[in-house]
Amino acid sequence: MIYIKILNFILIVTFIFSFNSNALEYKLYGLVQPEFSIFTNGDGKHHQSKNNYSFFTKGNFISYLDERDAKITISAIARYDEKDSERRYIDFQKLKYEQYFENYTFKIGNEIIFWGVNESFNIIDIINQSNLAEDMTGTKKLGQPLLSLAYDNNYGTIDLHLMPYFIERKFPSKNGRPRLALEVDQNSITYESSAKEQNLDFALRYSMVYDDYDIGIAHFHGNNRAPQLNINPSTLKFNPHYTILSQTSLDIQATKGAWLYKLEALSAKDGNERHLGVAGGFEYTFYGIRDSQSDLGLVIEYSFDDRNSYPFNNDSVAALRWTKNDINSTSLLAGMFIDMRGNSNRFIAEYEQRINNNIKLFIDATFNGSIDSQDFTYAFEEDSVFSIKLARYF
Amino acid sequence: MYKFLLILFFVISVNTNLLSEDNFEKGLRIAKESYESTRGYIDSESDQLMILVDPKGNEVIREISGKTLENDDPNDGDKSIIFFNKPKDVEGTVMLSHTHVNDDDDQWLYLPALGRVKRISSSNKSGSFMGSEIAFEDFSGNDYRKYEWEFIGEEEYEGETCYKLVSIPKYKNSGYTKRIGFTDKLLRPRMIEYFDRKGELLKTLYFEDYQLYNDKIWNADTFRVVNHQNKNKTIYKWVNRELNVGINKKDFEKSSLLRLAD
């Protein structure tokens, strides 16, 4: 497999450089995190269990070479999950070698690259595959193997990414909670591209800062990260089919004092059909509320897509973020997702605070309100959950 | 003879200027000279250690390292990058700031967990820096362009005769209504009292451990802040500080954040 070859190549390069440099300059840090979840609606729609424990870990190794003109980064995550076998995995989020020249950066290996400006509806973010077993909203990503060249000057930055190997989307297994209505059959994957997972995907992005505006224009061509899920009548499972996607996108953020205005837009050809998506909104922060050090931020975003099948085609989110700005960095995020087409809604809350210099506590809650039976989230209507996570950093 | 007259004329006119100087002009002149005595550092690199002490005496440590680039533009502020090391949960986070004198700064944050660079709102220069008693705006508190100044006399401070200066922020989002400080005869700020938006005494900043860098620039290597309202203390120390190290100017652009981040 090309993917394994690339990883091996980087590891070999890493070791050659490590032994050549007399005093290896490096950093090593990470975290271990036990997690516990309690579901409040009893057994799930698919007879999953009422509670679950899980264990997550992340390690980062960064080494500078060649008088800081080159860098090796290894950032790996791993999880063990009591119930969901798809949540037992290791992923190299970053496993890369970078070389810096005056105006150029060359990079090879696994990388996480984010495109966009929105808080919730990251519609243009396309380089990395989503790990839905980790999180159904798709914000958790898997490392993407790539070769990159970046060029920057006073007018902005141009990034070119070549992606020789495709990473399939991860879905929860049948014991996962939440999970889709049917199991996803990862052994029955089909591709529009005849090269399948070895299709050479590419992406080009131009980004710049102009005064209060951060602007990006991008184009992606390759395997769509989101597969079509077709029901196989004989197995009653979803068979993923990856089409070829050609997506052109624009993202803009205007930063005007305490106001942030955000917009992401795309036009894409997916298989034979063209679609349009627009998502954006604003963020406003009230600083030092009631003469305290606390800040209160308000985020409102809306997402439109002209496909009926797209989950966020007429959806909005409204959230409040309270940050106490105390020694423990206490914060609380509370938000409401509303599907304006089917009248579905979902409430989330995320609390966090540091216990000491090395330990941080996270408490998350998701409550599903009324969910339309036509909505894809109907499958996890009964998966309202409290989770508690305790991260120990090293 | 002609030369002598010219010099005499010059000396007299300068003296007359000084004599006719009112307390506002004198305050501004001292503040300007104090600020200018810290300029010409070109760029700097340092590790910074912060000790936060609560009223019960419990201590928490913060560690960051930073780079600063002097801006020659007389109407604009310096640029800085901060690398967060401790507490451990923010390790790998990087913040880039392009400061402006009497306007909001431009700030970008690199968030390692998301691999994302975010432009953030910076209209909160009065906010706490990492839970400490120091606000963002305090780091550039010696920039005379940010305040209206008044000289209100000379007083003994720690056995030295100092200028006593009142400064009123021009920046509309400042957290202060007034500052009263002592600046010594070497033009070094020694102590500043801060008054909050209600006009009440908020905190005192003591400038300690002055070191002469590169034979010309005095920098206080310790800021000690005592908050009189919540009784917290912050001790902020610069260690391994070096000036004029020859940092690439490009490091201070948004496009370099991903390069400099872990």
What does this structure look like?
The complex is a heterodimer of chains A (394) and B (262). By secondary structure, chain A is mainly beta. Chain A has one domain (2-393): Porin (Beta Barrel), CATH 2.40.160.10. In chain A, 5% of the residues lie in helices and 56% in strands. Chain A contains one helix and 23 strands. Chain A has one helix at 2-20; strands at residues 25-39, 51-65, 70-81, 89-100, 104-111, 129-130, 141-142, 144-153, 156-163, 190-191, 201-210, 213-223, 228-232, 237-242, 244-256, 259-270, 273-286, 295-305, 314-323, 331-339, 344-356, 359-368, 385-393. In chain A, the strands form three sheets. Chain A has an 18-stranded antiparallel beta barrel. Chain A is globular and about 55 Å long. The model of chain A has no long low-confidence stretch (mean pLDDT 92). Chain B has four helices and 13 strands. Chain B has one domain (11-260): outer membrane lipoprotein receptor (LolB), chain A (Clam). Chain B is globular and about 65 Å long. In chain B, strands 6-5-4-3-2-1-13-12-11-10-9-8-7 form a 13-stranded antiparallel β-sheet. In chain B, strand 12 and strand 13 (233-243) form a beta hairpin. Helix content of chain B is 15%, strand content 44%. Chain B starts with a helix and ends with a helix. Chain B has helices at 2-19, 23-36, 136-139, 257-260, and strands at residues 43-53, 59-69, 79-86, 94-98, 106-111, 116-120, 147-157, 160-169, 178-183, 189-195, 201-213, 217-227, 233-243. At the A-B interface, strand 1 and strand 4 of A face strand 6 of B.
